[in-house]
Inverse folding.
C-alpha cells in the first residue's frame, strides 16, 4: 500500500490553463513537502507545509495542507511551459535513527504552448 | 556553493555484473541518502549514511550496499545486476538529520543505470 497517493498520474494542459494536483494519505503527518523534477535532474524542493490548513504561495503556485494534516494540494494558475515536470509530494518519515523521505509516485505535468 | 554531484551520469551494464556509483555531497553536509527511481515504483529510499555509519536502510535486497568515506563522499554498489535494477539512482545530502529533526535534503542529478 502506497503511503502517499498522488492524482492525477498524468496531466496535459494548454498554456494559460489552471490545474490542481492532489496528494492524499490515511496517515497524519507533521509536515509535507512538494518537489518538482525535470527530465535528467533530481527533485528540487518547492515548499514545506507544517500546519494543518496552511496555505503557501510561490508565485503562481499555491500549496495547501489539509486541516487534518493527511492531504495536500498544489494549484497552478495560468500554467506555462516552464511548469512542465514531475510533481512529487513527500513526507519525512522517521526510520531507525534518522529521517528518510517517503515519496508519492508523482503527477507528470505537460504544459503545451 | 557547488551542488551534489554524481558520477557517472549514465551507465550500461549486463545482467550478473556489479556496479559502483559515486556521490559527492554539498560541502559541509555529512548526511548522504540514496534513492532508486523507477517508473513503476517511483522514488524509494535505499539507505542513509552519516559519519561513515549506515543509520537507516530501506526494503532492498542485500545486493544493494553502500559506504561513506571520512570526507562524506559516498558510494553505492549493486552486485549481481538484474534487469529490474534499471533505474535512476539519486543521491541527496543534508547537514544533519536525527530521529528528532529533519533538515532539507538536496538532490543530485542522478545516475541512469541500464541493465541489459
Amino acid at each position: 500500500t502506497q503511503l502517499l497517493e498522488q492524482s492525477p498520474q498524468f496531466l496535459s494542459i494548454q498554456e494559460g490553463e489552471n490545474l490542481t494536483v492532489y496528494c492524499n494519505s490515511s496517515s497524519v503527518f507533521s509536515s509535507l513537502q512538494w518537489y518538482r523534477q525535470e527530465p535528467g535532474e533530481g527533485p528540487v524542493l518547492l515548499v514545506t507545509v507544517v500546519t494543518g490548513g496552511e496555505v503557501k504561495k510561490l508565485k503562481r503556485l499555491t500549496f495547501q495542507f489539509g486541516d487534518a494534516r493527511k492531504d495536500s494540494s498544489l494549484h497552478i494558475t495560468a500554467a506555462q511551459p516552464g511548469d512542465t515536470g514531475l510533481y512529487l509530494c513527500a513526507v519525512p518519515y522517521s526510520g531507525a535513527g534518522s529521517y528518510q523521505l517517503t515519496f508519492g509516485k508523482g503527477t507528470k505535468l505537460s504544459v503545451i504552448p | 556553493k557547488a551542488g551534489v554531484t554524481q558520477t557517472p551520469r549514465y551507465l550500461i551494464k549486463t545482467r550478473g555484473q556489479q556496479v559502483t556509483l559515486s556521490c559527492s555531497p554539498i560541502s559541509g553536509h555529512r548526511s548522504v541518502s540514496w534513492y532508486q527511481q523507477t517508473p513503476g515504483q517511483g522514488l524509494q529510499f535505499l539507505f542513509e549514511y552519516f559519519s561513515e555509519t549506515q543509520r537507516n536502510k530501506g526494503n532492498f535486497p542485500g545486493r544493494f550496499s553502500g559506504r561513506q568515506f571520512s570526507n562524506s563522499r559516498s558510494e553505492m554498489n549493486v552486485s549481481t545486476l538484474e534487469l529490474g535494477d534499471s533505474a535512476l539512482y539519486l543521491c541527496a545530502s543534508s547537514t544533519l538529520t536525527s530521529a528528532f529533526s529533519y533538515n532539507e535534503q538536496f538532490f543530485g542529478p542522478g545516475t541512469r543505470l541500464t541493465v541489459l
Notes: DSSP finds no helices and eleven strands in chain B. The interface with chain A takes residues 4, 31, 33, 35, 41-45, 48, 50, 55-56, 58, 90, 92, 97-99, 101-102, 104-105, 107-110 of chain B (CB under 8 Å).
